[in-house]
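Sample pair:
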Amino acid sequence: MEETFQRMIEDEETSLKEQNKMFNVIGYSKLIFAGLFFVSVYNAFTRGTEHREIVLAVIEFVILLFLWHYQAGLRERMMYSEGMIAINKRHLERLSGKWTQFPDIGEEFIDRDHPYACDLDVVGNKSLFQLLNTTHTWYGRQLFAKNLLYPDFTASEICKRQQAIVELSKDIKFTNEVEYETGKIGADEHSSKLVDALTDKTLFMKNRQLKRVISAVPFLSIAGLMIIAIIHPELFLKAAIGCWSIQIVIWILGVVHTQAYLRRVYNLPYLVSAYRNVWKRMIDKEFTSEKLIEIKECLKDSDVSAIKAIKDLEIIAECISVRSNVIIYFVLNALFLWDYQCVFLLERWKENYADHAKDWFLALGEIESLICFANLPRVCSQVSLPTIEESRKVIKAKKMGHPLIQNEVRVTNDVGLDEQIFIISGSNMSGKTTFLRTIGINLVLAQSGSLVCAEQMNFAPMKIMTSMRIADDLNEGISTFYAELKRIKGIIELAKNEEQVLFLIDEIFRGTNSVDRLTGAREVILQLNAYDAIGMITTHDLELCELEKHTKRIWNYSFSESYQDRKIIFDYKLKAGRSTTTNAKYLMDLIGITK
């Protein structure tokens, strides 16, 4: 993939250089023709408006307009090339590990009470969200986070999402174009509020008769003034001043209300062209997967087309944007009651399209979310589509690795958790916790309809519950140990009430003495076993491994290390059976705590 992104960057850089050269040539040409135009105009006036000079001036002016229009288009293409270069560089940063510097970590989605979000690095700093997120709209960002944190899809929905994600992952050009266009929109709440404003059908003025009168006043005034100009031209000025004065009074009386109504869509002119461009790309694209075709059909409904709606909205946006020029804004309100006309146009648009608009914005958000998951095979060197097994609680995988670890150093393991509980022992830093996170984060991906970081994976959709990064709460007066008790109590309750539960518990009851830890850990494992939950528990207490002898569902696995030239070497490979090595004393010797 690195070569692909590098080649795309080089192609765009080459294109950008050519565009820059042409842009400069057009700029100089505009100066030349502008000078020729003014010379021709000067000659036409000084030589008695000779026909030849006037024709030359007209030709030069037309060429000048053409050059101006061509240069504007060239500027758009240059911005596109710059955008593509930036997007592909971010893809390279994901591969090189520099993605941890990306600013959007999904901070507002961090919830310490979530069943697994913080423990599995789903959101937050150095998280799956930070790695894969390419959304730029509010709905896209919310949907991506929701799909990671609350994946609640049926087996058929997961299959449809898998097909869509695979299709998108193979089309880098299209996904980059969507990211480029949505990058002009912004994912803050202003975008969400804009959608709310466009779908809010509350009437500005409930009195329809009064609305008709205000709409008609400017045009009746103009018609009346035209008649007066023909019949009594000497009265025209007085009549015009009178009419316009009345309209200015009407405008001033309603300015607070019209501004309040239009204020919700003031940023519309800056966003509408971006929405139009990205919707058009989605409609023009030939999809093959069922999910993407459904999203496309939502936009191109024959009766209510998103493109027709956005073009109409673009006209309204241009009308609203006039307010940026104070003089023109005042004149248009004096002549046409401009603010009122904009309000009525917007109301008419809502009447025609408001019922469908939110679905269009959600469709774009859905595409963005799917594209995020499509980034995984561009980051991980080995991915596959997981297979769903609904008949029993199972997670089986070959060469499963952690997607947040770079390809060069990622170590993979085979997994065969089939209605069992694994007790995983091993020394410090041997890979126990990372292994638990590998299982959990890949199951999150699988249940979201994504590919996974494994050569092969079979899974049953399950509720995931973890206990890893336990923190105390000074405000609530809760110690680390009590916080862990609450967390594990939640796991037991979930296992008791749910049929499909996967638990991942790291270093169970580390916050208490060894006697109480052993007693409590045994009780927890036996209760989870009684409720038929499946999962994994890591521990340094090898006494817990004795539980394997008492039930067929509990199996021992371990990680180990070796020593060479006063260095500890970890292979991070899962092995059957309990751990036979320890390294705490050696590590203390190594850093000089003990001798």
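The mean pLDDT is 87.
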